[in-house]
Each structure stands twice: as C-alpha cells, then as structure tokens.
Amino acid sequence: ILLCMLLGNIKKNFITLLVLFFFLIVVSSYINYENLLVFRRFESLFYGDFGLRDELINLSLNLLYNEPKCLIFGCGLSYFQDYYHFNFGLYPHNIILEFIITYGLPVGIVILSLIFIGLKNIIFSKSKILLIDIFVIYFFLISLKSGTLISLTAFPMIFYLIAKSKTYYNFKTN
C-alpha cells in the first residue's frame, strides 16, 4: 500500500497492489508464527498472562491502602521491596505508583502534573519535535509498564519533562 501511495495513483497501480497482496499471503503461509516471540507474547496476553506485572501493581495499591503514611508522606526508595521482602528486581513496574510510594501523593501530584504538562507541551508543540523528545516519550511510555525510579533513564526523563513543562509569562515592566 505504501509502495502504491509513493508511486501515485492507486487506480493506476491496482495490479501492483493486488500482486503485493497475494505475495504477502504466500509469504505469510510459510512463516511459523508459533516460534516468533512477538506472537507468543500477544498470545499470552490474550490468555490473561501479564507476566506478574498485574500482581505487582495490585500489591502496590494494597501497600498504599494498608500504609496510609506512604500515601501521604511517602516511604522512601525501595520501600516496596522492604515491605513485601522482595529482592531488588521485583519493583512495582509502574513509575507513577512507585513515585507515589516513594514520595507520597502530594509531592506526586505536583511532580506528575509537571511531567504531564511537559508531555503535553512536547506533543502539542507548534515547532518540530526533536529526536530527544521522541526518546523521552518512548521511555516514559515504557516506564508505565516496566519502569522504576532507580534506572538509568528515569531521573533524566523526569527532569527533562519538568523542564519542558515551563510556561512563559509576559510581565509588563514599568
């Protein structure tokens, strides 16, 4: 389809499109989809296997419910692991929940608001989106499903998005 769009008129290239379609059908019949990792992951999601992430998110929410001090004031880095006696690799797998467990909801609301304003400013910017903006958005989306505050990308991403959240005010000078 992209080839036809690049070549111009789709009516003129209908035969090309038809040949390409049948070629994809023939090629796809020879592919063993059971051995491809991406298809196995989608299949496991279809059957409800989220790879322990859903349980870790439920445990995070239970921690916030059972420990109101964490919700209000925060309990510090790695409290999730200490609370449940998990090893270092078992963290909430959601940077927002981990941020609230670590710093509390009041600080979380302020910082997360600045982060979302930064994301909004990047996405709805009238200027060109920079390559670093694309990487930051990518890492933010990844951190929602597998992120931790103790990672190489977390704090630079947070600081960059907070910096992007700044708004410009025009003050009159007398």
Q: What do you see in this structure?
A:
- This protein has 174 residues and is mainly alpha-helical.
- It is 64% helix and 0% strand.
- It has 10 helices and no strands.
Descriptive tags:
flat; single chain
Blueprint (SSEs and pairs):
Blueprint lengths: L1 H6 L6 H16 L7 H10 L6 H14 L1 H5 L6 H6 L10 H9 L1 H19 L7 H16 L7 H11 L10
Helix pairs in contact: 7-8, 8-10, 9-10
Short description:
With 174 residues, this protein is mostly helical. Helices cover 64% and strands 0% of the residues.
What percentage of amino acids are in beta strands? under 5%
In angstroms, what is the radius of gyration? 23 Å
Shape: flat
End-to-end gap: 61 Å
Mean pLDDT: 79
Portion in helices: 55-70%
Number of DSSP strand runs: 0
What's the SSE pattern? HHHHHHHHHH
Helix run count: 10
Structural class: mainly alpha
Spans where pLDDT lies below 50 across 5 or more residues: 1-6
Q: Main beta sheet: strand number and arrangement?
A: none
